[in-house]
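Figure 3 (text version): structure tokens given as input.
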């Protein structure tokens, strides 16, 4: 029997709030350790059962069918994601489209990862296989549950693992729906399991569960540490995607017409609640003033409002996040950091919603808290720099290392800076906050370890088995 995501054995439930108005509109099961046991056991049984014998080709076809179902239900999934997280309607639609693409990509990739044949001693043949870990636990955050769920589910199933997904208590609804669509796509019962509930109970029980063979997590560094410690009890492997403080470096020869809208979008997309948000903009001193003025002009026009209004940004995901972001803005102002512009909250935004007006800070000291800590909100810091060396030094001056952007027409500098910046992904004359299903993604330093997305994720979601034949 598959663990049903809709009810907990205790019968306990949690209200689901819409961030746009702060009102409860649904509820989810508040799973406990016993529900996690049930889900992990179902995943383990499915792994040891017929799933092991399903060919890579067939697994790929199942994921391809899931992709088609996501496309068929795109409007429904997009609307549900927007209501649950408060993200503007067009962002919900974009997330559904990327989700469809993830399943398409991993559906096609399932039978494309090759092992090796290794030159070895005379009389022997040595080769490697890519083997699934077994039961993968995917603990995912609330910012992009459809997309992040898809990059975990797609890669895990492509390699033949089974899965227990633990979505965030603030945004579980589309994950529950995807599990239903997975069954409809022909993915057998028990292969995809969902446990909803609190991180401290359901998440913690899952990460230390003895039947879990591998853990993949996206979220905060602090929770990442707790999950690694829990998984270490069973000596299980982990992939950690832990956010960032990603710099965009703008040199004086940059094409500003191209750069400025991308720079604004990279921090405003999803209200800044994006692990790869471009939250620091480093600007060469000789163009600092005009660039700061142009960004201030744009920031002053930005408006936050309910998801259905489809404005520049929606609310923060919950009250705690809204208060946290507002407190970080207030602390930066109090520290005397110049505020260059603030956006607006739509006058008709419901008063119970979790809104924060975008804020642009100028002449920010690279060591200031607002330039060092992940705000996870619509807050952009502008940092002037002298020359290329200074830019690289400032770019690398945080504990994070997830993504970076480099804006320059100088080809040599593009290569030098891209190599010198410590980030898992570097965009030259472009920036894709969260973008690129095909592109390996993950961090250096406190941003985590392991890689998701692209074919690279298939290595994290599997282990090498070496087989040696002695044929005399
Ligand atoms: P979080 O604690 O890292 O939550 C992420 C996921 O981990 C959720 O599913 C959460 O469940 C679960 N979780 C929480 N505690 C757990 C534990 N002890 N064991 C296992 N799982 C656990 O993030 P948050 O508290 O929602 O947000 C705080 C900050 O994290 C944000 O301000 C932001 O800076 C950062 N963040 C980063 C990302 C990213 O994409 N890199 C995403 C989200 C947040 P519940 O939510 O149900 O408790
Ligand atoms: Mg919600």
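Below: residues designed for each position.
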């Amino acid at each position: 029997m598959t663990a049903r995501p809709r009810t907990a054995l205790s019968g306990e439930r949690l209200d689901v709030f819409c961030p746009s108005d702060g009102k409860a509109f649904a509820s989810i099961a508040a799973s406990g350790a016993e529900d996690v046991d049930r889900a992990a056991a179902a995943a383990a049984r499915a792994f040891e059962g017929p799933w092991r014998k399903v060919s890579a080709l067939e697994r790929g076809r199942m994921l391809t069918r899931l992709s088609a179902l996501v496309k068929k239900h795109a409007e429904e999934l997009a609307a549900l994601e927007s209501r649950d997280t408060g993200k503007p309607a067009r962002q919900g639609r974009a997330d559904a489209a990327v989700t469809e693409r993830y399943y398409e990509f991993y559906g096609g990739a399932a039978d494309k990862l090759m092992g090796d044949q290794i030159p070895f001693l005379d009389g022997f043949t040595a080769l490697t296989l890519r083997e699934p870990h077994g039961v993968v636990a995917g603990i995912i955050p609330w910012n992009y549950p459809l997309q992040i769920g898809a990059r975990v589910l797609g890669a895990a199933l492509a390699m033949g693992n089974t899965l227990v997904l633990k979505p965030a208590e603030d945004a579980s609804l589309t994950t529950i729906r995807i599990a239903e669509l997975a069954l409809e796509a022909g993915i057998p019962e028990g292969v995809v399991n969902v446990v909803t509930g609190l991180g401290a109970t359901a998440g913690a029980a899952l990460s230390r569960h003895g039947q879990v063979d591998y853990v993949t997590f996206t979220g905060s560094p602090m929770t990442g540490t707790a999950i690694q410690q829990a998984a270490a009890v069973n000596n299980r492997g982990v992939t950690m995607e832990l956010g960032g403080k990603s710099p965009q470096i703008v040199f004086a020869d940059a094409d500003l017409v191209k750069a400025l809208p991308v720079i604004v979008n990279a921090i405003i997309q999803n209200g800044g609640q994006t692990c790869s948000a471009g939250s620091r903009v480093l600007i060469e001193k000789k163009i600092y003033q005009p660039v700061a003025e142009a960004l201030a002009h744009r920031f002053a026009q930005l408006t936050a409002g309910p998801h259905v209004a489809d404005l520049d940004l929606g609310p923060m995901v919950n009250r705690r996040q809204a208060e946290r972001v507002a407190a970080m803005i207030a602390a930066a102002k109090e520290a005397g950091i110049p505020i260059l512009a603030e956006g607006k909250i739509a006058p008709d935004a419901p008063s119970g919603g979790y809104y924060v007006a975008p804020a642009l800070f100028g002449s920010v000291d690279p060591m200031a808290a607002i330039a060092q800590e992940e705000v996870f909100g619509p807050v952009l810091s502008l940092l002037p720099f002298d020359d290329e060396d200074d830019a690289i030094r400032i770019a690398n001056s945080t504990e994070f290392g997830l993504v970076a952007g480099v804006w320059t027409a100088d080809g040599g500098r593009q290569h030098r800076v891209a190599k010198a910046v410590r980030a898992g992904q570097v965009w030259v004359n472009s920036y894709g906050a969260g973008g690129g299903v095909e592109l390996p993604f993950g961090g250096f330093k406190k941003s985590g370890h392991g890689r998701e997305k692209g074919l690279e994720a298939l290595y994290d979601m599997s282990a090498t088995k070496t087989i040696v034949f002695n044929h005399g």
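Residues 87 and 314 are 5 Å apart (CA to CA).
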